[in-house]
Every structure is written in structure tokens, then in C-alpha cells.
Amino acid sequence: MAPGDTGVEQPRKAHRVAKSGAKVRKKKGKCAAGDDEGGERKNPKAFAFRSATKAKRLQSRSAEIEQRRLHVPIMDRSIGEPPPFVVVVQGPPQVGKSLLIKCLVKHYTKQNLSDVRGPITVVSGKSRRVQFLECPSDINGMIDAAKIADLALLLIDGSYGFEMDTFEFLNIMQVHGFPKVMGVLTHLDQFKDVKKLRKTKQRLKHRFWAEIKEGAKLFYLSGLIHGKYTKREVHNLARFISVIKPIPLSWRMAHPYLLADRFEDVTSSESVRLNRKCDRKITLYGYLRGCNMKRGTKVHITGAGDFSLSGVTSLADPCPLPSAAKKRGLRDKEKLFYAPMSGLGDLLYDKDAVYININDHLVQFSNTDDNNASKKQGKGNDVGVALVKTLQNTKYSLDEKLDQSFINFFGRRPAAQSEDSDMTGNAISSRQNDQGEANILAQVGGNNLSSAGTLESNGHSSSECSSDSEGDNDDDIQPSDHGVDLREEVEFCNGRMRRKAVSANFQDDDDDDDDGSDNEDDSHNEDSDDDHLSEGSLSSDGSGEALDSDDGTENTSKWKKSLLARTLARRGASLMQLVYGQASAELDNDSGEEGSSDEEIFVPKGQKKQVKNELPSFDDIDAEDYSKFLKVELRDWSNEDLIKSIRDRFVTGDWSKASLRGREVDENGEGDEEIDGDFEDLETGEVHKSQAAESAAGKPGVQKEDELKVEELRLKKLALKAKFDSEYDGSDLSGEEVDNEKKKSKREQPDAGGYFDKLKEEIELRKQMNVSELNDLDEDTRVEIEGFRTGTYVRLEIHGVPYELVEHFDPCHPILVGGIGLGEENTGYMQVSLKRHRWHRKVLKTKDPIVVSIGWRRFQTTPVYAIEDRNGRHRMLKYTPEHMHCFAMFWGPLAPPKSGVLAVQSL
Ligand SMILES: Nc1nc2c(ncn2[C@@H]2O[C@H](COP(=O)(O)OP(=O)(O)OP(=O)(O)O)[C@@H](O)[C@H]2O)c(=O)[nH]1
After folding, report:
1. N or C: which end of the chain has fewer CB within 10 A?
2. DSSP 3-state assignment of 161?
């Protein structure tokens, strides 16, 4: 019987909506397109909230999500070049840490590293340096390394699997601020079965993700080729390293710290000899990180204790970033690296010296076979080699030489004479140049001399060694002409160091006479000799006789004439003369001299005036006519006021006035109108009056106001620029418009973005203002106020360090120097919240010593465990609870609240 026959309606099978297939896909596509086109418009009700409560809840939820995403903007206080990015390579023993560092260094620098000891700095890009550090396998080393790592490369032996070292390190990092982490699997070539390899990779990856986070980067180094990891894999790893940005960690941002890449014990050897265990003086070098370090800061050296800094000096960057020239790639020459502990880097910078490492086998420095060596080498003497060899012959230190030298303003005497004149080749030629330059300078010298310390200046082999500057004693000594050695006699006379050049085997009669007169009466000589000096400079214009007559004394001897003639002959090509002509140069000399001769030391006043009144005679008919220029240049130097006005421009004057000079106006009204004339700042439309005009109008205050205005304007411009930089998104909208645009684009939370951006902008503004203010200061004041900036390569000098630090110094163990903040140098009781780690088998017992690591410090202490009861009282516990937090109270150096704490029972 057919079912229909009964007359009873059978329930129909419900329509099954197709969930897959072409139709569904088509339909879905349509829907999606409709949505895109504006599904809301077509059927607005379908997308509207049905319930106000639900709407509110959804809104608040999205707001919450957005708020959680936002962080309080932190001011990035670093100015200038950032310090190198610290990459800590960690892993169990024999996993391939050293090999990986070597391969990476090779990749970046094309240099083979024989030994990995201490931090290795390499330039990895145009604006980036990387510092590799191999993490030691002991707990102390791991703790220290975790505190400075910007990126941790966790090496895992793939053929073996994870080892505890990796997890311990991960846990340490979690406590002390988690930096970026990447895993690297090595020893994968030991898998013979590809399938097994694939499975192991998967397993290890997921384990790694579980420990860090889903998607954490894990690299595979598939094996070795010629004992090195394959280039391709190293290249990929290097690429990843170079794009990672460090995470700003609050502890590190608030404390200055450095990873010492060089360590020197500078204790005097005598005190070490007397007592081997005496406290030592050490110097530590490294890039400053975290925040600026001020001079008085106390520091903690991990493993050694707290010390106050005896000295902080900023040094030249040993591994500078390549210049920001417009180049695309990084040239090979600029691929620098620096690793003094590994014996790399040929230059070592110290406070007052630079050390150059040259392999002994490359160059022979011994003095004996000097000539033979150069012959053997075949090529001519290298400049560097010659320099080093000349250094061997140096008998006097630079300080001594400086003491014995003097500045020669008005003559042809070598600028800084000293002993090491047996320099050869380039050294000498450079010296000659110096002397040539000295000629341009005007002559001031004095009637020096006498002699106490003897200084041989035997090697003035060239014509420069003529010492014609001082009138009386050294005038006729010309060892170059006669092949005679010069001896220099130094004495302290009339309040300054003076030198006398005495030839050992050559005596000049004139010289003798002169010396005799010198010795007779020093005070008399002062005047007369100064006259000679002025003669020296004036005589060049050919008016020697007039000068002689000026003297009016018996000084009109013949030798003087010959001296003048010689001086003239030797005068040679003066740059001044070549450019401006003889007359002009002389006039300049004159004026310069008179400017300086207003110092009573050199010329008696009466005589000076006499000289001044006699203008040089330009009787040389062959000379070109410079009169036109002269007219422009001439000033009335008989005017006392005019002379006074330039008095402070000389060594003996008041230099502090120099800064104010620009603001002062010549009393004569002469002057700088052309230079400091009115002008209009086209950008601002502001008209700047000349200073002279302003002060003439009797408005000294106006100028100050103007300066303030200019400064304000500059700051405003800077702030605007900063704002633009921070907001730049390619559009040329104004600040508010940009804000609006951003608000529109952030549908989820329209207000927070605006506020957030404003906050950021404010911070950037403040930073720019600070920077501009600080940059206006001179270096010392800036350092005093701001401290040494991060990224600076600094040298820290620390006294009273226990000898064990020096004795047991191990370059493979990082030396971390951390600045101690206010209140952190005190000791006291601390209360921390503690939980037994799941790997620690036993519970901890009260008063059992543990090693605690907080902040920069590691120290041993005996904690008392406690738990908070319901009534709020702390009840002491004999043992820590199994799986719960409890309190631990212990004595130790204090750390600020919220610092991460880590405790280990044994090292
Ligand atoms: N077959 C194979 N050998 C490797 C691999 N990685 C490293 N090695 C070898 O493992 C040995 C140890 O390498 P190192 O770089 O000294 O390891 P390390 O971690 O620095 O060792 P420690 O400093 O003693 O902790 C070397 O002989 C390497 O050649 C790898 O992926 N495959």
C-alpha cells in the first residue's frame, strides 16, 4: 500500500541546505561582495544592534582590547648613535656556540676569528652594530648574560634535544626582563633518516613554542661544510639578527650599564710586588647603555660588589658606524670589528694614548739592522714603520718637549723645538712644513735664555734649524750650514721657560758678545731684546737702519746687519706675501705687532710710539702698487683706544671678552657694519638690525630680547619638525588633520588614539627641547648636567677592587657594570614573593642560604619564609609551600619594588 493512499500526510523530509559546492561558493562570494559594497546599506537592520546592552558590552570590550594594546609612551632618551645590539649566544656545552659566533663574524667582517673570548663588536649595517657574547655555562654567567642580552640565540643540539641549560636560561631571562629570543638547532647532520629529522624538527619546534610563544622563531643549521655552518643558513640568520629591534625594558631604561669589552689592571707594579693581595685599580671599557651615566654614579660590578667611580672618560669609538654618506651598501673597508679580549682590533684606545697592534713577524723594529732590514724588505720604508722607528730614538716625552718648547709668533724659529730631531724621511718633512707655517706667524719671542737643562737639538739638518728669532743669543747659530750639533739649554727665567741654543763645537764671536751682554743685565735685556724682536719683524721691510738708530745703544753692531740681511734672504715665500703682496703683508705684520706690542712686556712705551709713527717707506719701485688696498686697511694705530680695543685678542688679554666681542661696537664707530648689517630673515619675515645700530640707539635690552625670540623660534621649528617626523604618513595634512585622519581610520577606539598620539608628540617635543638646550652647552657642562650619553664608549676607572677580580679574571665571563640608583646602595630587609620552581625537587627551608639575584646584584643570604594568614598576619614557615607563593624575608642590598627576583640554592 502506498503511503499516499491512507490519506494521512507523511512528514516531508526537510530541505537540507547545501554547505559546500559551487552554488554555495557562488552565494558566499555574492554575500561578501555585497558586504564590501556596503551590505549595511542594503540591509542596515541586519547589522544593527538589537539590544542596547549588548551594544554597550561589545563597545566596552573593544575599548578594553584597544586599551590593553596601548602602552604609556616611554621617552627614548638616547641621543645619537645607539650602542651595539647585544646578541647572547647560549646553549649547553659543545653545542656549537663558538662556531656560530665565528661564522657570524666571518659573515659580517670576512675575518676569521680564532678564539671567542669576551664580547665581539662588529658593524653589521650602515646604522647598526652587533656585539656577540658567548654565554658561559655556569649559572652566574647565565644570570649576568641574561641581564644584558638584547637578543638571545638559544642553541639546541637537535640530535640530542633540549637540555636544562636552555630552560634555566629562559627562566632567568623571564625574571630579569625577557629580551628577544630565537632558537637555533644544530647537529642536525647527525640524522641519517630524513623522516626522523623532520619529525624531530617538528617536535622540538612545538616544545620551543610552548616555552616561549606560538610562532617563536627557530632556525635550523643543517650541518657543517669544511667545519663551518653553511653560508646560506648563516646569512639567513644574520638577516634575522639585523632586523630585530631591542625591547625597551624598564629596569635597563632606568639604569646605566655597560658590558666591559676590555679590562686593564692599572695598579702600580710596586704595590703589587709589596703585597700581591692589595686592592687593585682597574679600568673597564665598554659602550654605555640604558641611560646616561653621571660622573658621581656608584656602580656595581657583578661578582665583585659596589664601587664608586674614580673616573669616567669618554673615548673615541673603537668600532664606529660607517659615515652616513650617501652610499647604498656597506663597503668592505667599513666592515669593522672590535674584540680586544679575543685579540682582535689593531687599535686600542686609552684615555691618553692609542695602542697599535702590529704582528711582530710583519715588521722588524730593532734598531741595529735598520738599514739592512729596509733593504731586505725590498720596498721603501713604510710611513708607519718609519714613525715607530723614530719613536725609538726619542729621548724626551711629549710633556718634556712641550715644556721645553715655546710658541714662536714672529719668527722663523721652529714652532716646537725638541730633541727628537733625528727623525728621518716623512717625519722630517712634516716638521719642515710646520716650520714653514710658523714663518707666517709673527714674532714675539723674548730675550730668553740662559740655560739649565741641556737639550740637544742636533738634528736640525735642514735650513729651518737656523734659530734667528731671538736677537741675541741664538741668532748666528746655523748648524745646517756648518754641520754642527746644536745643544739646547733650558732655564726658567722671568717667569717663563726659556731655551738657549748652544752649539757644542761652534762658537760665534758675535754670539759670545751677545751672550755676554745678556748675562750682564737681564732686566736691561728685556727691553733691548724686545727691540731686537720688533726689529726682526720690522726689518723685513728693509728699514733696518732706522731701527738700528732707534735703539740708540751700542747694539748697532755689524752682526745685526748681517742678521737682518740673512733674515731677509731667508724669508722666502710667505703665503701672506704671495697673496697680498709684500707691503700688505708687512703692514699686517706691523699692525699685528703693534697690537701685541701694546703688551708692555715687549716694548717700552715710548719707543713703541716712535716706531709706530714711522710708517714703513715703500721705496721699492719694482713693487706693485698696493696703495689702494692699504688705504682700506689702514687704521690709526697711534690711537690708544684703538689699541686697547684689540688688546684682549692676544694671549695675554682677557679671552672671556672674546665671546662678547661681537656685541661690542668700536668706540670709533668704525667697522663691522658691512658684516653685521641689517638683514631680513626671509623665512620668518623678521628684520634683524645691525648690532651697531642697536647699541648706538642705546637699547642693550632689545638685543637680548631678539636673541630670546630667535631661540624661541628655533625651538618651535624643532618641535614642529619633531611632530612632523613622528606623524609623518606621506600626506601633507596639518597636525590636526592628521589626528582626524587617524581617528577615522581607527574605528575601534576613536579617542584613545588621539590622546595617545598627543602624549607621544609631547614627549617628542620635550626631548627635542632638551636636546637643543643641551647641545648649546659646551661639552664639559653638558656632561656635568646630562652625564655621558648612551652609546658612548667609556672608560671607567675603579679603585679598591679586590685582587681576586684581577687574579681570577676570565674573559669568557661577562663583566657587567651596572649603575646603582638612588636608595639602592643601602642594605636592609626585603620582602619578596617567592614560589618554588617546578624543577626544584625539594622545598626550601627557612634560613637555608640561597643566592639571590635582584637588579644587577647577586648575593647570598638566609631567607625566612612566611605566609599571610587570613587575619593579615605573616606566619613564619619552616618550609616553602609545594605549589604556592609565599613570602621570603631576607637581609641584603635594597632593590626598588617590582624588581624581578631569582634565587638559586647552589651554583
Ligand atoms: N656535526 C656537527 N658538529 C658540530 C655542529 N655544530 C658544532 N659542531 C662541532 O661541535 C664542536 C663544539 O663546537 P663549539 O663551537 O666549540 O661549541 P661550544 O658550544 O662553543 O663549546 P663550549 O665552548 O665548550 O661550550 C666543534 O667541534 C664543532 O665542529 C653541527 O651542527 N654538526
Report:
1. N
2. coil
